[in-house]
Amino acid sequence: MYSVYTLLLTLVLLVWSPSIILRALRSPYYREGWRERLGCYPKPLLSRLQAVQPVWIHAVSVGEVGAASVLANLWTARRPTLPLLVSTVTGTGREVARRTFPQAAAVVYFPIDLPMIVHRAIATVRPRLILLTETEIWPNFLYECAASRIPVAIINGRISERSFSRYCLVRPFIRRVLQRVDLFCMQTGTDAKRILALGASPERVHVVGNLKVDAAPHADASSLAEQWRRELHIEAEIPILVAGSTHAGEEEVLLQVFGRLRGEFPDLLLILAPRHPERVTQVETMVADYGLTAVRRSALAQGRGDAKEVILVDTVGELSTLYAVGSISFVGGSLIPRGGHNLLEPALYGRPILFGPHMENFAEASAYLIEWGAAIQVSDAADLTRQLAILLRDPAARESMGQAAMAALAAHHGACERTVALLEKFVL
Q1: Domain 3-deoxy-D-manno-octulosonic-acid transferase N-terminal: where (predicted)?
Q2: Are 38 and 184 in the same domain?
Q3: Which tens digits make up the pLDDT trace of 93-108?
């Protein structure tokens, strides 16, 4: 089965390679880090890593980096000499990881999951322990770790309904792959049941909670909101809707809803953060097509322009704290069938949360926040308009939802402590 997987992955890469090459020719963004993706690292980095045998933490992109950093900060505080290597898949993830992990020996790209490449990467880095964040199951990488007797743990483990359905199609193979993981620290009981159904050994599976719940806010929410208002040139008392991690097909709906709401709330400001920053130019054109005026976050940072009707977030790693300035938060990937995105960031700053009907990837978290009265799930654009209008008219209701969000998170603190306790045996 491993040979079949490797063959299929090779064919996918061959088919995909013309697109990759074309993108690389057009943008340096896609040219960065290809030697690292092939398991080749700079000599100065190798000499540092081989001398210390780091704990290798892998986080795909921005969201996973945030979760992993919570764990790393606690562990580093307790073991200041514990060396870390951090890897990501995306460029945005790498950019955020470089800022988030100042204690790391290096931040690199994760190797392509082909036998020769992962063998080269693991043999040169020689990690003492590998931590894979959320749902990172790479068969050849895990096979090589087992062959090299390097323990592997999945932290903040999560198996969405969609991923579970796909893995079930190749359950016999996935069962063999999961036997090479030494520890599963899963977010919820549902995640644990799914990983067990796929073949994980029961004695290795633990429900510890979500690491992101233990993330400390960067500052008091009210002072952070004031700081953002100053930086974005937003006058006090102006109501703000922060729409984060939006996808194509959602911005159109949000702009329509925003236009309707401004009839009753003419001062309402929209902070719009597309999930993929490279789409900002496209969204900017869309804003103009709706007769609205937009300014980019980067332009405001450089002192060019003032806050307009729409602020477009074209920077990386700021969305989580931008939720603090919002009167209301909307979490994207949910008006269209993308499964939703992280709800904990706006909850962390005590902001009321709205999202669409498609939250399959965060079903348990969304149901939990709804139960606590911290979030509202809307069915469509009309429902979104109605619910936003109700909240904009009622500051007390917004305050109540925000307090409920913080209380809901406080009830689930401790995931980081539980995870570190389980990991300690691997680094004694």
Answers
A1: 33-214
A2: yes
A3: 898 999 999 989 899 9
Q: What is the predicted pLDDT for the residue at 19?
A: 73
Task: Report the residue count for the chain.
Answer: 428
Band of the pLDDT at 30, cuts 50, 70, 90? low
Residue 9 maps to a domain: no
Q: Where are the beta strands (DSSP E) in 150-221?
A: 152-157, 183-186, 205-207
Q: How many domains does the chain have?
A: 2
Directed axis angle between helix 139-147 and helix 171-178, to 10°?
40
What is the average pLDDT across 44-60?
Answer: 84
Per DSSP, the chain holds a count of helices (H) and strands (E) of: 20, 14
Report the side by side order of strands in the sheet with 55-58.
106-109, 84-88, 55-58, 129-133, 152-157, 183-186, 205-207
327, 261 contact by CB (below 8 A): no
- Encoded amino acid at 254, one letter: L
Same domain, 202 and 276: no
Token pair listed for 305: 């322009």
DSSP string, 235-272: -TT--EEEEEEE-TTTHHHHHHHHHHHHHH-TT-EEEE
Query: Region 326-349: what's the mean pLDDT?
Result: 94
Catalytic center residues: 64
Calculate the average pLDDT of the chain.
91
- Domain span at 258: 221-410
For residues 190 and 235, state if they share a domain. no
Whether 203 is covered by a domain: the verdict is yes
Q: In angstroms, how far is CA 328 from the centroid of its own chain?
A: 20
Evaluate if residue 17 carries a pLDDT over 60. Answer: yes
Can you read off the two tokens belonging to residue 413? 């603190």
> What is the CATH number for 154?
3.40.50.11720
pTM of the model as a whole? 0.87
Q: Model confidence over 66-90: pLDDT tens digits?
A: 899 999 999 999 999 899 999 999 8
Residue 174 host element (H or E)? helix 171-178
Q: Which residue, among 409, 394, 312, 405, has the nearest Cα to 354 in the 3D structure? A: 405
